[in-house]
Predict the 3D structure of the following.
Amino acid sequence: EAPLLAELVKAGTLPPEAERLPKEPRVMTIDEATGRTVGKRGGTIRTLMSEQGDLRLMTVYGYARLVAYNRSIEMEPDILLGYENDKNRVFTFHLRPGHKWSDGTPFTAEDFRYQWEDILTDKDMERGGLDSALLVNGKGPKFEVIDDLTVRYTWEEPNPLFLPALASARPLDIYSASAYLKQFHAKYADPDKLAAEVAKERVKDWTRLNIRKSRSYRFENPDLPTLQPWQNKTYSPANRYVFERNPYYHRVDQNGAQLPYVDQIVINIAESSIIPAKTGSGESDLQERYLSFADYTFLKEGEKRNNYTVRLWTVGKGAAVALYPNLNTNDAGWRALFRDARFRRALSLGIDRTQINQVLFMGLAKEGASTVLPGSPLFRDELGSAYAEYDPEKANALLDEIGLKRNAAGIRLMPDGRPLDLIIESTGESSLEADVLELVTSDWADLGVKLLTRTSQRDIFRSRVAAGETNMSVWAGVDNGAPTADFSPQEFVPTDPYQLQWPMWGTYVSTQGDAGQKVDDPAAQKLVDLYKQWLVSEDIETRKKIWEEILDIHADQVFSIGIVTATLVPVVVSNKLHNVPAEGISSFDPYGYFGVYEMDAFWMD
Amino acid sequence: MVYYIFRRMLMMIPTLVITSALIFAIIEAPPGDYLESYIAELKAQGEAVDTARIEYLRKEYGFDKSPVERYFNWVGGMFVGDFGYSFAYELPVTAVVGDRLFLTVVVSMATIIFTWLIAFPIGIYSATRQYSWGDYGFTFLGLLGLAIPNFLLALVLMYLANVWFGTSIGGLVDPAFVGQPMSWAKFVSVLHHLWIPVIVIGTAGTAGMIRRIRANLLDELQKQYVTTARAKGLHPFKALVKYPLRMSLNFFISDIGSLLPAVISGAEVVAIVLSLETTGPLLISALQQQDMYLAGSFLMFLSLLTVVGVLISDIALAWLDPRIRLSGGVRK
Amino acid sequence: MEEGEVLRVNDLRVAFDVSGSPVEVVRGIGFRVCSGAVTAVVGESGSGKSVTAQAIMRILPKNGTITGGSIDFRPKSGEIVNMAALPANGPKVRSLRGSAVSMIFQEPMSSLSPVHSVGDQVEESLRIHALGAGMSRKELRAATEETLELVGFPNPHRAYDMYPFEMSGGLRQRAMIAMALICRPSLLIADEPTTALDVTVQAQILKLLKDLQKKLNMAVLLITHDLGVVANLADEVVVVYNGRVVEAGPVDEIFRDPQHDYLKALLNAAPHFDMAPDQRLVALRGGKRSAVEMQKHQAKHAQPADRPLLTVSNLSKVYHLRKASLFGGEARVIRAVDDVSFTIRRGECLGLVGESGSGKTTVSKILTRAITADSGSVLFDDGQKQVDVLKLDERQLKEFRPRLQMVFQDPVSSLSPRMTIADILREPMQIHRQGNRAEQITRAKDLLTSVELGANALNRYPHSFSGGQRQRIGIARALAMDPDLLILDEPVSALDVSVQAQVLNLLKDLQKEMGLTYLFIAHNLAVVNYMAERVAVMAAGRIVEIGPSRAIFEAPAHPYTRALLKAVPFADLDRPLVLDELVLKGSSDPCNWPDAFRGEMHDLAAIELGGGHQVLARQTADIGEIHA
Amino acid sequence: MTLPANATRLPHTVSDQPFDPDAIYKYTDAQKALFEASQLRLMWWKFRRHKPALISGIFLAVLYFSILISELLAPYNLETRNSSHIYAPPQAIHLFHNGEFIGPFVYGFDYKLNMENLKREYVPNLEKVQPLRFFCSGEKYKFWGLFEASFRFVCPAEKGTMFLLGTDRLGRDVLSRIIYGARISLTIGLLGVGVSLVLGIVIGGMAGYYGGLFDVLSQRLIEVIQSLPSIPLWLALAAILPITWSPIVVYFGITVILGLLDWTGLARTVRSKLLALREEDYVSAAQVMGASSRRIVFRHLIPGFASHLIATATIAIPTMILGETTLSFLGLGLRAPITSWGVLLTEAQNINAVALYPWLLWPVLPVILVVLAYNFFGDGLRDAADPYK
Ligand SMILES: Nc1ncnc2c1ncn2[C@@H]1O[C@H](COP(=O)(O)OP(=O)(O)OP(=O)(O)O)[C@@H](O)[C@H]1O
Ligand SMILES: Nc1ncnc2c1ncn2[C@@H]1O[C@H](COP(=O)(O)OP(=O)(O)OP(=O)(O)O)[C@@H](O)[C@H]1O
Ligand SMILES: [Mg+2]
Ligand SMILES: [Mg+2]
């Protein structure tokens, strides 16, 4: 028994472990192959977060999903005992018999039915329609309860997004703790009680009450049963949240000991700016968030004194810093220039990435364009190196070729006669970006391009880009730097309004032509077409080919100018904490930070 | 007097109405709304954003309504004690602010007391011993506190306190005590942490106080009535406190109106650097995230305190100096 | 130090640091004060009298130092101390200050803290020194009120809670006296203690001093310009001039046998009641330049003299006193001006005399619109039409201002402390855009000279002047405006008679040659007699008698006027005031007046006694009653 | 008469000094000089006597002069990066090498990247003697952005380095950046002080002097403004100011607006002082003379608490110089490439700088010096204007 629960079990308030586990728990192999050891149970991990909203990371770290990725980013059933996928059209899920929610109530098909019928498709609960991962050509699936432990989702067309959405760091909610939540649903609850509850929580009506009580991802309601390894025990607002192990958790180690090993996770809330300092003084047992490469030396100095080890993980984004020419900018002069691939290539060639890498990352990062990372099966060398070498001559030649003449001060002139003063928008939040821009500024000066930086707040930045008011912006590369062909290539394709290089096209595509601007660049249009093919493709080979083609187009067209990739981030791990991989990829999707590294198998001395 | 207070209370109403409109405008001024900053935040994490869902939320939060309508909803709510709802916390504003208020008051009061305890004696000393070594020394120290940016001082002190005394970094209490009931150990831990913000915020204000007290006293010390007091054989210090000091307090009293809201709002930037669980950082983040009801209601609370503070300051002024008439305007 | 002496000052020297260079203003003054006796110090204004007093108290301004001499003081108990050698704020000096030796400041108006009640400030001495130890608050207050009563406060209980700015000049001076006397010191330094008091109160104070002297064997160092007071009170007289003692001796020898030229000139310069109508005062110096010559402006004053220049009718002003506490307390009012009417003819000087606190200053401030009246009207004849002064709006007022000027009673507070004299004198010229800088400076120098001040005053600030010098600066400033009507509120009270003579002559000349009109407020009746063609007498906020000066002084009708005249001290050893015989107290209180003069304002009327001599009496009263 | 029995009668003495009625008109030369002198000269004489003020004044003058020629003073350009000397510690100036005098020089660095903690380690190499060059031709610069030149007062040795205050994360010389930063720090921020001072005095002055409706309204306005903490205002302002403005103009705008909002405390002080002071007779006297209200307020009343104003102004100066650090905190301050002391300090605003690269905190020193200088200068002014001195 886990130390935390032993008392309760003795007292009889909690059934013994054997009764709490599903009939067929998920057995995790914790062995040398993954560099791990079987641990003992108990202990507390302290970690630091900066706001209440960060609690959702516990859902990410916990990473109990219906289906989940393993370290090699292969999908496996996790909460599910198993599933069948018929050509991405019919998905049949089998639940684990005897699997219970953290409050001991059974986890059954009813929880799927409730979510589907009473929440997702309920008229009163109208929430802006079904999630896009559930829609194919605007149509949702057919849902069936086969038996108490089996459910099925059926689409007429293939839906390749469905399973990845379930395995995502932010999972698609298709089940919920119905036994608990029914008390907040008009269909099931006693109206008076419901009304009283609505009044107590100061919400407008019962639907909102239901939403509030049922948000499993945000992890704010300590009463909401969960399937994650740890459950929140602290009501908000608070500065210290305690998560305790889920007594009914479905995973065991190979010796049959119920996971997680660690009894408690304590999250202390602190301002993000002092989290490196706090971590360096040993106030966190496991910290990745809010640390940056620049903190490494400082953290390292505290290692001995505070008994922790600093590791370096690789950031899983396509690039640490990338520049996005806005192909939809309102400024016609700039738009024309940006639409000219030669111009984009020239800008990319004109950046001395080696120097940036040396100055800012001591040469430890990789220089290259914004594409997938070497860790991805889709990676090829030429993708990263395309137009990424430092070649000012070639760059100048390209610019000359476009016909951009220099004025007396050495600044090139746009075709309409304006000097080439390129204003880059930034959120000004990261000093890394600022430093990179500083270095790029002097590189580009040699090209006759004058770079100016302007900062605005994150949301203003976004809305300005989306409105076409900016010419170029700086941000990180694609979020998922290590996709397999099964992942949607949408980040490389105009698909959503938040994309910085083609916001209008993204809007156009995502709204099926209701808003935004029609994609009028052949290469970009090609990307859209490829994406559409990917969506209906049925076999992995086709998808792989589509992916490759998309990446080639990107490498050739330089739609975004990546600068450094595979940057490093320190992860501080207490020396008492075991099974944390020495190296890893730090990313939200698909790794879920510690998620795929199975945080439930970490253990404390 | 009673009549005067009553009249001033009445006058508060239009003032507060105007302030509320202004506050609302200020919060609305930045383009975008809470959802946009929420999206931006998600994007920064690398999380996906579902456009349809955002549209739904926009309606849900009432962002589709006209600002005027939202303003009246908000103000109307406040009249019946409903201060609105924090989007970021998903909690009623009162619940969010509640806990932090107490800590803020603790920090602010400690700071104010610290400032006064230091500024008054030094100010008096500096004025009476103008150009002595002490005067120069204190001036130097005070200005040092003023010239070093708060956040830097905070950072350095915090770091040194950790290295030298092992005090945990930031916050008002060791993390181990957070959420625990008050105990002696916790109290000691609070004291260990409290001195940093008190010194950082305090030093910034002290220099100003010292210099102003000194300047005002220097002016008053020359007045004939001081000589009169001396001629009575009054101890110079008592004479100082009773006559010139009281007169030179004029500046101090006239500005106590801003003290009350300052107690509650706290020094935001320092609080952020030191990660204090006070209202300051809460307000800033609410503003930055455009969590409008949280920010708005809090600001309204501050403005109420200001208005009351100004009234108190006016009454105190009239008490301090009988030449000043409460009604202010009436000519001889 | 001899037996019987309480204070002996030997060869005292005091220097001031003026912009870095020392200026010696007391250059070896020596005198003595015997216990139970009065030593009077007289001398020219600015000769160092007050500085000497300050040096004795060790309260010189920061830039002043005692550079030589000794100040031996023998407190009642204990041995002789040399005050000059002690640290100025040491415990020894402090224990003596206020208890054994106390001082009445020359400028009572600004010597009190404006934010503390009078009672509080008076009582303070009592609290500091042993005398008040062990007294309860009630007892302290009782003792304080008693002293306030002694110095002539009509309503000590009310006065206790009043603030200095709510009091008239005389009242403040009385508070100052109370403050000095409350600890019953063995040495009292009285620097012009009665200048702001009307003669009845002055007599009362003199009597009080005498009584205390007798009772407590108190020694008094009296600094004064009023030779009448000297003659009546002093035992020994010290005459100082320009920082040195020029003559000293027992009072009779000084008056009867003056030796030094300065003293002779001084005694000669005093105005007296027996002067011929056109007799000029004999000033020490003729003035460097004819004052009239400076006022070489247009002959605008040459207007027909028949119409009154100023017609004041039914002025009233009620002050609401601040309540003792912020919350509650009974509302108290003071009827400062009660239905006052009078006229001033063009080119005339109207003397306004009366009880201290009777509203003279208030009336004059109303005329200048420094205070708003509750009711009444003030008509000013500007040659073409009658202007209602109280109804002028901002713009009209600004235009009107230059025609009516005022010299304030309190010279200290009427001069901006942070402006140099040059700026102060130039200010009116700047406001009315007269001349360029150089011309203005020249004019300022001329003005200074005409009031017997040197050009070295130009770059100094008001606080560094003696009381009399400041008063003259005020006059000079008012003259700079070249007004039609000049209100002078106690303009010469702080001037020694010689300078006073100079100033009065100047005023007379201006009146004669430029047709200036004056409202002349003073307590010194001899001065009023000299200056004024007509005199109005105020008591309790009303004008009780008005008429040609001769009529008033020779045939006073009102009981208050009579009391007043009886209390005038003469600078003549043979005509001493019989203090004990004077019915001092309450001479101004209507209750003590015969029936014929009592009553509410609407029952009373100005009864014409002939020749423009009017007295305020019951409408029903007959002449017999009035002359009774 | 009432003389005590035991006292001797005072002899009648007469001084032998003749009576000179014109004694008061006799002046020494010093006195003459004094009263002939103009007001300003008098102030200057008084000011001169206050040594710290005098020194401070000179210091400030020199400093302000220096911003005219920053390019000549700084050993490096503002943007010069030395990528082989990132986070280099300060180099001390030496005069003697191996006991031998060779004039001011620095020792060059040996550089090693410590792979263990990824720290750049610099060790002075006692062999590499790099004498500083004076009145030399150094790196090229554009003087005020106008014409190119290379003359400098001091430059590093040829091929050598001269980082007297170390370098930052991009290898830029901290000293040079401080020298350039003075341009912004000593100018723009002060504008805000000026604006708020003027507003505070004028509005407070009018409210206190006139009272009445103006007072009531202005007090309500103050309440409203004081109700709004500065930070939300800044945030709102940042949103309102057109995004197309250059950062320096935005910053300029913000400081002015800060000034426009920062006057309330002062205004209340001024008002309450005036409420008391306007009862003084000299105000009546000035009114009687026909002085305009403006004149009364500014010539008579305000000088009465010049000390307070001077103190307030000098205290506000550091707040304004450093105000941008707070602004930067909110993302509103100045930003590279514009450099000010506040920007430099903002960059030093993290635990790494404090713990590992403390030399990045040097920009705090000029701020302290300037603040001290302004204060003592203000003291001197105060004294010079003090009639009692
Ligand atoms: N603080 C000061 N600084 C410089 N000079 C001063 C100062 N105080 C007084 N004096 C000068 O000292 C001289 C003597 O002044 P004092 O006040 O003793 O005169 P006084 O004899 O009392 O005259 P009065 O009769 O007018 O009051 C005057 O000329 C005056 O200008
Ligand atoms: N600001 C005020 N507030 C209240 N009462 C006042 C105020 N000013 C004057 N008084 C009162 O009004 C009365 C008249 O005062 P005023 O100054 O006119 O007397 P005065 O005749 O000039 O006396 P003095 O000869 O003593 O100067 C006095 O009793 C005084 O206490
Ligand atoms: Mg005097
Ligand atoms: Mg008077």
The radius of gyration of chain D is 30 Å. The first helix of chain D runs from residue 29 to 36. Chain D touches chain B through 69 residues (CB under 8 Å). The pocket of magnesium ion (ligand 3) is lined by residues C 49-50, 106, 191, 466-467 (CB under 6 Å).
